[in-house]
Fold:
Amino acid sequence: MSFSKDDLLLYAVTDRKSADFGVLYEQVRQALEGGVTMVQLREKNLGDEEFISEAIKLKELCESRGVPLIINDNLAVALKSGADGIHVGIEDMPVSEIRRQTGEGFIIGATAKTVEQAQKAEREGADYLGIGAVFPSSTKQNAVRITNEQLNQIASSVSIPSVAIGGINLKNIEQIKCNKISGIAVVSALFSADDIKTAAQQLKEKAKAVAEK
Structure:
């Protein structure tokens, strides 16, 4: 699946709270109906076999909506499931090694908290950056916070698109002041909502106001 910065407008990162995959699948379906533009499957406590099985099912669902499916951290799962790409943190497999193994056309996202990390990821072949945490995050309580000024500096230091992440919700999204990001990545604001479809619609409208035109 081809990738453009528009895919980052409303980037949904899954937050598994139920042991039942059917619940997660339904949540993602509702999020897609609400207009999310990219989905990242994040599973920290699954073996590869179950992770791959989930990814295959979600890939089919996302593909039916023309939305890329990204796998968090695990390259083997991403490749074996046919996912569109991977997102890696600063301490995960180097972007250069992933690009060497996958070639062009495979989407690679990388976390960046500094200008140096951003530029390194771009040099090594990343397609986009996830920059944050821009607010306190309930899913990553030890995440390093960055200011609006730092967000601007990091996003402006590279030519690849960026998405802001970390504790973003409907109440604080307008506090993001950066004309260089292409969208927002959300976890709890979407998947903890009572009405996921409506939350996605509202978040997407607000994301349009902060994203680079």
About this structure: The radius of gyration is 16 Å. The chain has one domain: 5-210. Residues 47 and 77 are 10 Å apart (CA to CA).
